# Entry
Amino acid sequence: MNLLEIKDLKVHYPIKGGFFNTVKDHVKAVDGVSISIPEGTTYGLVGESGSGKTTTGKAVMGLNHVTSGEIFFDGQKLNSKGKKVDVRDDIQMIFQDPYSSLNPRKRVFDIVAEPIRNYHKKTRGELVPEVLGLLQRVGLPPGSLYKYPHEFSGGQRQRIGVARAIALNPKLIIADEPVSALDVSVQAQVLNFMQDIQQDMNLTMMFIAHDLGVVRHMCRHIGIMYQGRLVEEGRTEEIFKNPQHIYTKRLIAAIPDTDVDEIENNLAFRQMVKEEYDRNFADHLDEEGRAFPLQSITETHRVALPVKG
Amino acid sequence: MTEKLLEVNNLTTSFKIGSEYFPAVDDVSLSIQPNEVLALVGESGSGKSATAFSLMGLHRKARIEGEVNFQGQNLLKLNEGKMNKIRGGDLAMIFQDPMTALNPLMKIKQQIIETLKIHNTKAKNEREAYAVELLDRVGIPRPDRVAEAYPHELSGGMRQRVVIAIAIANRPKLLIADEPTTALDVTIQAQILDLIRELQDDLNSGVLLITHDLGVVAEMADRVAVMYAGQIVEVAPVRELFKNPQHPYTRSLLNSLPTESMLGSKLHVIQGVVPALNKMDRTGCRFAPRIPWVPASEHEKNPKLREIADDHYVRCTCYKNFSLGSETPQNIDAEEYQIETGARGGSVR
Amino acid sequence: MLKFTIRRLLITFPQLVILSVLVFIMGSMMPGDALSGLIDPSIPAEAIQARREQLGLDNPWYIQYRDWIFAMFQGDFGTSIFHQRPVMDVIGDRLMNTVWLSLFSTVLIYLLGLPLGLVSGRYNDSLLDNAITGYTYLGFATPQFIFGLIILWIFGYNLGWFPTGGSVAPGLEPGSIDYILSKINHLVLPSFAIALIGLVGTVQYLRSGIIETKQKDFIILARAKGVKESAVYNKHVFRNSILPIAAFFGYEIVALLGGSIFIEMIYSYPGMGRLFLDSISTRDFSVANVLILFYGFLAIVGALVSDIILSIVDPRIRIK
# Structure
């Protein structure tokens, strides 16, 4: 059962220009992306800056307009005109920068209680134990209740962000680069703890990141985005062991590895892939410079390979 | 023993918080030889960027002690005028964020020509052509056009190439690269690292590479110095450091990476947090609070860097019987809260 | 650049038309017309009516408006009822006085304000900076006329260094050296009175601009290139910090050209501010209308000038 299904999502922004400031063209931030995430699993959406991964996540959250396509959550269509399906308490987002995503003038209690207050009429007396329970869940001591965000380190702030995100018992969490602003050791804390929370609450997660190592660690399925389109999608081990699209190959080859024995090999391999990329990449795009539609090569593995013939 | 290009002795850089000075860089000694890449690794607040800024003399309001010997002179004793002849000349720097490192109101060529002019590298009428040549050298397509562009017209990767072009304009002997690829996409990172490697080879210069990315270290460095809380805790040749890490911090750090071997298991977590600059214990092993299961007797009272194998230095004795310890719950105790004073080493200028 | 300016002018044009219509309608709603003040009670009503028709005063407003506009394009701005002179003559003298006063004040504002702001921002939180910001707070809090009065009292009455009123000493031949010197002499006190208050905004903007700019990465890069500290400020910090001031330049000029009623009153300086006040209090609407239109025109032009200046200084907002 897929909790989230995105079908042929397009998000286009007009580019204005010329003498009368008219619409000249469109930036195709997301251009025909389809993703299904089974309940209780984590889907990694990977891409470089400008690939459209964050825009895709925001579209699911309803944070930006959708040009065309459909988004189904738990079988309900989210972006239908007219009647709005209210699932906002079922979908929550965790943001990249724990330093700027928390209101510095609010205490932890108010930050975490805010989403609850938005949906339920509750007294302070009812809220305090609820917030305390959430803090415990994310590993923050009760004493944090009345502190301000600046009194916490980056990793702790990200925990506050997670506590806020899970306050309404959501089913789906969209995590947009949740660890890229954190140090390695703090990143490890947050990743471990996000895995715990996910298992405990049977959460479904869309994990948006540019760091392939992190995504590999966290996700069962991965989609690779390039300029608004998916170029490859599959189970994590398929993507890493058997990448098919030249862009995926290049992305994977570009990650510096800590295995000092393999450095020479890695560098040589990277060079080889880059040369192949420079030679062949144009063949992997259609006349408009877009990646081809995905084709299945195994049951789970789909690649945007050039159409044969 | 080849001659050292840079020798830093007992560098201590302190910042004022309230009425007191606190050392963000504490008694750091290191050296770089020509054509050598020394990586300085650490997390935020470790003092690695503060070290780089101290070498360049870029701290405005810090108290800096010790010696920075570069080409037979102690840079810390030079006046501003003499320092300006060295900065951007024989000693150049590449910065972390290419999006903000270039003056938005100046054309690219003006920004390159400025450094050529200061260091009198080319005759006046050759400078413009040389600027274009430099842009070409750092792999910028259509360099003549980019020379006329403003920074906002270039992508992040291109801007970083411009920053590098400025740094190599006067053929520096030592290049300090402060997180040169942190802000870049991974494919661009690979290209920029290639470029730095290539230029270093070309110029036969030494490189001080400051980074938090251990993958970049493994690929780029000849030797590695690991910093924690303002001190160097371990120095070793790159192979030795990754194959045979000794200091508990180095080992913990390597185990917290989500590498292939860690798939399906929990990542190692270092307990607690890096102490704030003004809340730090000045005596004893600074890493001790984060490995509480190691008894006090294992630590030195006044830990020093000691050579434990050829060219391999480790601080404190606590590494000897250290094991990473079992997975401990990561609940955070009340005393670990820290008030951040805004004086985390990396952000203080 | 040219395209940008032309487009801006095209956008500006309808704004001016709307403004002129509004001004005209408001003017025609006022009681009385250009003839009311000229009426001699001995002239028969029929003659007045005939004169009205001849002047087109009975036409519908849009016809009158068209005539008014056409006349203005031909340089005929009407006649001042109060002064019994062409409006253009009445405004002309005053305008020149105000232009000179504005010019002097502007030069003083930037001549004094920019160095003060630069010093204040570069050495922020030093004693000098505290003194300068202290002054700017004083400047923000003190009404202009108090400042004007104090300066007048000290330098005009007590020390007697400068004249206390008028725009030129009487009896001098226009165009002669003495005449010009006398003009300048009369400008000193009022322009200082305007500038000393007017510069506080410039100082504050520049100070905060410099404090923000000086910790930017590209400033550190400039130092790392070996740029001398003085050049770091004069070349890199300064240019990046004056953007907001450049953006306000057009508005600032416009505000000054509008004339300062208080300063003109205190120094009995015949400028635009007083003319506007007088024309309203004497119900001299033919003058007031033109002045309002002139102010509106200035405001629009000021915005345009600001935009053009900003697009010259900042390549990021240059229109391709």
